Amino acid sequence: MRVLILGGTAEARLLAERLAARGDLAVTLSLAGRTAAPAPQPVPVRIGGFGGVAGLARYLADESIDVLIDATHPYAAAISANAAAAARRTGVPRLVLCRPPWTATAGDRWTEVGDVGAAVRALGEAPRRVFVTLGRQELTPLLAAPQHHYLVRSVDPVDPPLALPHVDYVTGRGPFKEADDQALMQAHRVEVLIAKNSGAAATYGKIAAARGLGIEVILLRRPPTPPAPAVATVEEAMAWLDHALTSAAARGV
Ligand code: NAP
What we know:
Elements: E1 2-6, H1 10-20, E2 26-31, E3 45-47, H2 52-62, E4 67-70, H3 77-90, E5 94-97, E6 110-113, H4 116-122, E7 129-133, E8 149-154, E9 167-171, H5 178-187, E10 192-196, H6 205-213, E11 216-220, E12 230-231, H7 234-250
Parallel strand pairs: 1-2, 1-4, 2-3, 4-5, 5-12, 6-11, 7-8, 7-10, 8-9, 10-11
The structure holds NADP nicotinamide-adenine-dinucleotide phosphate.
């Protein structure tokens, strides 16, 4: 049985690791190719876009993929929509593996907004010190508010740097500890955080740190996901896959 995992997340890598240990599956992990040096993966990897719905559908057919698992980041809306359409077109069963969002607890000061532009507008006119933990390709809306002082954290360096008068950069790949994020935010006298609600334990440190410091968090709302069988954990994905494989075997596929 051939399984294609659309990845780019810790969950995709963990699922691939669990499936690699089994002898009954041929697993390929697909990455978009956004990071310069992706983390090592436990199964064969293909890198780069497929070329839209048609390209992904062709790949599924050419590679005789039996099951498609969309384990991409909750904000990777385009590839998830393509996966839904390509699966429909080819009849390949699809599972979405997506971590639930964080929910606010006592002490959290969250404002939810629809996109990065709205997050920047929510900062207001007066200059503020802002910690930004978005992808480096998503930073252009910051240019509309050059009065703020930004601290930008990304996996790879922001190159070219933003055309803004006050920006500090820090690179890093999670997991990030709450104590380290708290120290970073204090060192840069951060007053507000702009982040996505990724739901990952590895990036929750900044949310907890912001709560501890009484700092406001402007959170980007998650994009809607196309309807699909969906699970929240690698464990549940394994169970779904076993069920799908048993059904396929019963059908003589
Ligand atoms: P996106 O906007 O949903 O996708 C844009 C295009 O990138 C897709 O149409 C597809 O190109 C290609 N693509 C995306 N994921 C792919 C994958 N796993 N394998 C092959 N092609 C892929 O995606 P994005 O938000 O830029 O995210 C890109 C990748 O980074 C994803 O794999 C995601 O899991 C990971 N990631 C994203 C975020 C985030 O905040 N968005 C955070 C952490 C990790 P074609 O149409 O040519 O097939």
